[in-house]
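Message: Study each token:
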Amino acid sequence: MPASLLRDSGGSRRLLVSLKFRVALAATLLALLFYGFYAGSLG
């Protein structure tokens, strides 16, 4: 088990921010991908 899991709120908050950032980035990329397909089908 990694030692980072045993740490308190400081590390987990940073992990949570990193996770939110990755989720937002992935959602943005997916939105752009779907928009590209949608715009491409219209064109």
